[in-house]
Structures are given as C-alpha cells and as structure tokens.
Amino acid sequence: MRTMNRSIATLAATSALLVGITAHASEDASTTFPMGRYQSGPNIMIFHPDGTFLGTTPENEDWVKGTYTHTGNQITVVDTWEGEAIRADGGDCVGKPGRYTWVRQGDVLKTTVVEDDCAGRKRGTDGVSWTYLR
Fold it and tell me: pLDDT tens-digit profile of 88-112?
C-alpha cells in the first residue's frame, strides 16, 4: 500500500511538472514573433530572422523594406525604403517607427495599431490578416 501511495504521489508530481512546462512553453511560443512569409491579397510580407522585413508581390516587385524589433506581443517597424506607390499613398514613413500588437492563430497573423504617425502604413497594417505561406 505504501509503495502504491508513493507511486501515485510521484505520478502526481510528474504530471504537475509537465503541465507547468507545457504552460511555460505555450507562453514562450505566444511571445516569439513568428517570422516567415505572409500574404494578404496581392501583398507579401517577409519577416527575416535578422530583424529586417520586405514587402513585395508574387512578381517580386518590392514596395517596402525596413527593420523590426519585437517584445512580447508587440512589434515595432521602421521603413528604410519605400517604393513610389507607397510614397504616392501618403507615405514617406522612412525612419518613422510604428508600433503594433500581433497575434497568430493557426496560419493567420493579425496586427493592430498601438501607435503610428504614418497614416499610409497604418492603413495598410492595422487590422490586416496575413496568411502564412508554406
């Protein structure tokens, strides 16, 4: 009987530990920005591991380049180059940071503006859903 109680206690402690580890891993995964290629309509955004991003089309016509940093569920983007279409659409956000929250559910990444003085970028980013490209 004592051995059985000890086994049950060991099993319970191991289960609690595994639940704690799993919960911690889930928290870490939800705050690690999901780099990769995403598409929304004709636009493709690529977030590289080196902290740079590229906005392009399926025909490889680049429309924006920049850098990003992330902390928790927030990402800050700074355009370093913009194509003519961006500048014509109220752009010239070069050097101006924009801060957004992000959430990824399944293959969909969605961003919501926190603060961005660049109206053109905000229009193209706030509330937009991007589908992960495999």
Answer: 776 678 999 999 999 999 999 999 9
Hey, how many other C-beta atoms are within 10 angstroms of the C-beta on 115? 11
What's the token pair of residue 120?
């053109």
Quote the CA–CA distance of 86 and 96 in Å, as a whole number.
14
**Two structure tokens written together for 63:** 């429309």
Whole-model pTM?
A: 0.74
Distance CA 19, CA 27 (A): 12
Helices (H), the chain: 2-30, 84-88, 119-125
DSSP annotation of 134 reads -
Residue type, 117: D
